[in-house]
Predict the structure.
Amino acid sequence: MNFRFWIEESYILNPQSKIQNPKSLLSIIPILRQNVNISLTKFNSIVYTLTVMLKIGVLVSGNGSNLQAIIDAIEAGKVSATIRIVISDKNNAYALVRAQKHGIKTLFLDPKESKTREEYDRRLVAHLKKEGVELVVLAGFMRILSPYFIKAYKSKIMNIHPALLPSFPGLHGQRQALDYGVKISGATIHFVDEGCDTGPIILQAAVKVEDNDTEETLSARILEQEHKIYSLAIQLYAEGKLEVIGRKVTIRQK
Ligand code: GRF
């Protein structure tokens, strides 16, 4: 969400986006609350762009290369979002280390401490809500969400899958594609519904399957595409450009 506002030249914005004497902003900031980024883009020297950062929570279980790509895109100013928390169901997930290196709050939530999937998801949701998370990003999170979770964040959960859905859902999408003998596979970003990899598709990227591909080589090329399209999908969501009607997601051209 972008706002443009006028600011008198005497109100200085420093590079850390701290506002000095921001009388004209004081009326806006409390409404927008936290996570407001002041872009230093100047138009005719007195108009600045104010961007409201989308608050996201990322759920992980493993290496976290998609998380890293999202962090990098945010830090490069390509995604108007802030990661409020990274939660893992695995204590040793490298994704947690990646987040900590960037000063992002992390949490290991042990599934063994919950009797049922829903009980675990209630704890997850409570942490995400406490952080004000508006969009939940699944980045290699190896658990299926309960109906409770889906309802709590209805149409506000994204997942990435390493195949062109609806082909090869579930585990080992790359291996399934190779075993089937397809010539093209790829990556899919979709909203999460109650099924397994069945929600409305947001973006896809195709990857050619080579004759000598192994699961590892194909996975690596798919991963390169995953890293590009996940950030793009989050940015489209942050800009309010994704419209979901039934199964179809259209991208509004504003
Ligand atoms: C990716 O291949 C993603 O598509 C799948 O899990 C993998 C996670 O990789 N859902 P990483 O942890 O982001 O490196």
